[in-house]
Amino acid sequence: MAEKVEKVKRLSELYDLIQYYYENRDRPVNDSGDFFQKVKECCDVLDLDFEVFKREFKL
Length: 59
Hints:
The protein is an all-alpha fold. Helices cover 71% and strands 0% of the residues. α1 (2-24) packs antiparallel against α2.
């Protein structure tokens, strides 16, 4: 059960990251953390291929 809760939380975080990317992709980079590292961590927890994910969402 805890694993499912963690996956939902990571999915929500991944959604927020994607939304942030699309809203801010044309703006200067804010050094508030490594965006792609956070996306990769979410993909790992959700058992998603990080490279395929980046291509699919045009990151």
